[in-house]
Automatic annotation (TrEMBL):
Location of region: Disordered: 48-74, 139-246
Protein's name according to its UniProt entry: Nuclear factor erythroid 2-related factor 3
The protein's role, per its UniProt record: Activates erythroid-specific, globin gene expression.
Organism: Heterocephalus glaber
Gene Ontology cellular-component annotations: nucleus
Originating gene: Nfe2l3
UniProt key word Cell cycle: no
Keywords: Activator, DNA-binding, Nucleus, Transcription, Transcription regulation
Similarity remark: Belongs to the bZIP family. CNC subfamily.
Entry-linked Pfam families: bZIP_Maf
UniProt xrefs under PROSITE patterns: BZIP, BZIP_BASIC
DNA sequence: AAACAGTGTCATTTA
DNA sequence: AATAAATGACACTGT
């Protein structure tokens, strides 16, 4: 465990710890981030927009939460992922991540964690954990969430209604937190968890070095077994190893908390919190009134949350087997994670652990898909959400809170980290903007890592708490919450992304598709299909690749179509010009011909006049039937008797006379 | 702020 | 039937 950040005056702190769990041969790495935020009272006052309503304190969480701030939204129908993110009291954002296996959904817990130096100095109690979690299924969202649903991230009442309708339609989709209302089922599950935790603690006593060795060995085995894995999977293994290395020297979180007096939240008193117990007390000692596990209730225990469904990687059975057969056990020292309350939600009761786990797969992929949605066209303020550019058939009317995290030890700053969340509807504009960095400026100082293409995604919905800002980009403030408009939001989302990449390219990279967009688009259909079959690609990857291919081809087709249309227009315009010019030419010719005709007519009239006045030797008018006019080449006109003209010539002359008459 | 062009995307039709 | 191409329509963005 490592304390990454101490409290700022108004900001939050981040605690990070890595936990390895093993249950029934299933090894799970948990990457825990504890986000410590000031109490809502402080945050509300500080973050209240001018003239605007107070923002729920838990809306400051860098995490999008299921059900929305205020519990307005149900989980997505497919979201049977184990999502601990009941916005408990909203004070402590406890992010639990699984690292050892691919596509482990991030599980999170929001709870209050209040830590006061003054109070600790006064009475020796420091951290407070409040955990009156509320169900994510729209039941409520904690102290602030339940009563302030509208102002929160899911504040749109229409969106809330819509989500509630969906929740009613598919009640089993909800896996949420139900804090402080553990049912009997919860108790049973909790007992199971405790038993597991006890065994875990036994193994925990093993030396750290042996664990590291085992872990390293496991990683090597995984790597060997999954030689055919795609690059991202291999990279993930390496990254996970590195992450463990980074976390290997982490001290006990709560010992650290109790031993570091500087870790405090200024201005927060213990009286503001629902629990009065130090963190270390709560986590390390069951004798204390409140411990973390009791303070935070879950619908499912962490073991269940971390266990992979056999269906999770349908195309990677080798890896799955290698992962599940590793009897490696390590638990959070001093933390009885298994005491998390089992689900109290009625909908959750109907779900077995296997059900939950089996639901992970689709949720994960859906979530990945939703990532692109969030990046692409998500408008948090819109009631009805629909993916603007996907015909994959995946519903985007999601309110579930699922996420996948692949992170390093510092989890939020890993450039290779890929985190996805589908909790888009619950990402209100406030949430999103807060995620960009408005509320946790300290986070930007925590991580100075290079930001990859996913940076924008992470900032948006991936819980990358770096919240770095570009130079010159003002940090969002409480006033910025009033900013609206999809364009502005999306621009802000991508402040840190590689703008040179197209959206599909970003999506492809986000999904770690091992092919370039150009390849996907350009390659023949046979090659494309064979490529899809040769590689281990998830449904979402395949779907995205097909979408990319379709969009890419259509884009080219549209460009060609427009170019062709433009060419046609230009050609038509040229043709019009040509025709106009020809028309003028013809008109000129016509005028010339008319003029010639008129001249000819005039000559004929003159000839007729002359001919009418001709007379023979006796002075009698010449009979036109007996004489004809004959023009010589020099224009001289002769009066010739018809009998002197050749027969053919005579006929010609007759015709001329007839026409003239 | 309105108008406009360019572009991407989707839905649909056509080849 | 599957696929690509073509195209109208729409939304978005930048000028």
């Amino acid at each position: 465990m490592k304390l990454l950040k101490s409290w700022g005056a108004t900001g939050g702190g981040l605690l990070h710890l890595t936990v390895l769990l093993s249950l029934a041969g299933l090894r799970v790495d948990l990457d825990l981030d504890l986000y410590l935020l000031p109490p809502p009272a402080l945050l509300r006052d500080e973050l209240r927009p001018p003239g605007g309503p107070a923002r729920p304190a838990h809306a400051l969480s860098p995490f999008p939460t299921s059900g929305g701030w205020g519990g307005a939204g149900p989980l997505h129908p497919k979201a049977r992922e184990l999502d601990f993110l009941g916005p408990l009291e909203g004070h402590l954002l406890w992010e639990v991540r699984a690292l050892g296996v691919p596509f482990i959904p991030r599980t999170r817990v929001d709870a209050w964690l209040v830590h006061s130096v003054a109070d600790r100095d006064a009475d020796g109690t420091h951290g407070l954990l409040g955990a009156t979690a509320s169900s994510a299924g729209g039941v409520g969202a904690g102290v602030d969430g339940g009563s302030q649903a509208a102002p929160g991230g899911g504040g749109d009442p229409l969106a809330a209604e819509e989500e509630e309708e969906k929740a009613a339609a598919e009640p089993t989709a909800q896996v949420a937190v139900s804090g402080g209302r553990a049912s009997q089922e919860n108790e049973v599950l909790r007992e199971k968890c405790e038993s597991v935790a006890r065994s875990s603690r036994q193994e925990e006593n093993e030396t750290e070095s042996s664990q590291e060795k085992s872990l390293q060995q496991q990683n090597n085995e995984d790597k060997n077994k999954t030689a055919d894995e795609s690059d991202w999977e291999v990279a993930k293994t390496t990254e996970s190893r590195k992450e463990r290395h980074l976390n290997g020297t982490d001290a006990d979180l709560f010992q650290l908390l109790s031993s570091q007096p500087e870790y405090s939240l200024e201005g927060v008193s213990l009286e503001d919190t629902p629990f009065q117990s130090t963190i270390s007390d709560g986590m390390n000692s069951s004798a204390h009134n409140v411990n973390l596990s009791q303070a935070i209730s879950h619908d499912v225990n962490l073991h269940e949350a971390m266990l992979l469904s056999p269906n999770t990687f349908r195309r990677d059975p080798v890896t799955r087997t290698s992962q599940t057969q590793e009897p490696f056990l390590q638990t959070l020292p001093g933390t009885n994670l298994t005491e998390f309350h089992p689900p109290a939600d009625n909908q959750m009761r109907n779900l077995t652990s296997q059900d939950l786990l089996y639901g992970l797969d689709a949720n994960i992929f859906d979530e990945i898909n939703l990532l692109s949605l969030a990046v692409e066209g998500f408008d948090p303020m819109e009631v009805s959400f629909q993916e603007p550019d996907s015909d994959s058939g995946l519903s985007l009317n999601l309110s579930h809170n699922t996420s996948i995290t692949k992170s390093n030890s510092y989890s939020t700053c890993n450039e290779d980290a890929v985190s996805y969340t589908s909790d888009l509807k619950n990402l209100s504009g406030h949430d999103l903007e807060g995620a960009v960095g408005g509320y946790c400026p300290e986070h930007s100082m925590l991580c100075h890592m290079d930001h990859s293409y996913e940076a924008g995604f992470q900032d948006l919905v991936f819980h990358n708490h770096t919240y770095h800002l570009q130079p010159g980009v003002p940090e969002p403030t409480s006033q910025s919450f009033s900013t609206s408009g999809k364009s502005q939001k999306m621009n802000r989302y991508f402040n840190n992304t590689d703008k040179n990449l197209s959206r599909d390219e970003r999506r492809a990279k986000a999904l770690r598709i091992p092919f370039s967009v150009e390849e996907i688009i350009r390659m023949p259909v046979d090659s494309f299909n064979s490529m899809l079959s040769r590689h281990y690609l998830t449904d979402l990857q395949v779907s995205l690749m097909r979408d990319i291919r379709r969009r890419g081809k259509n884009k080219v087709a549209a460009q060609n179509c427009r170019k062709r249309k433009l060419d046609i227009i230009l050609n038509l315009e040229g043709e019009v010009c040509n025709l106009q010019a020809r028309k003028k030419t013809l008109e000129r010719e016509q005028a010339q011909y008319n003029k010639a005709i008129n001249i000819m007519k005039q000559k004929l009239n003159d000839l007729y006049h002359v001919f009418s006045r001709l007379s023979d030797d006796q002075g009698r008018p010449v009979n036109p039937d007996q004489y004809i006019l004959q023009c010589s080449h020099d224009g001289t006109v002769f009066i010739v008797p018809k009998e002197l003209v050749a027969p053919g010539q005579k006929e010609t002359q007759k015709g001329k006379r007839k026409n003239r008459s």
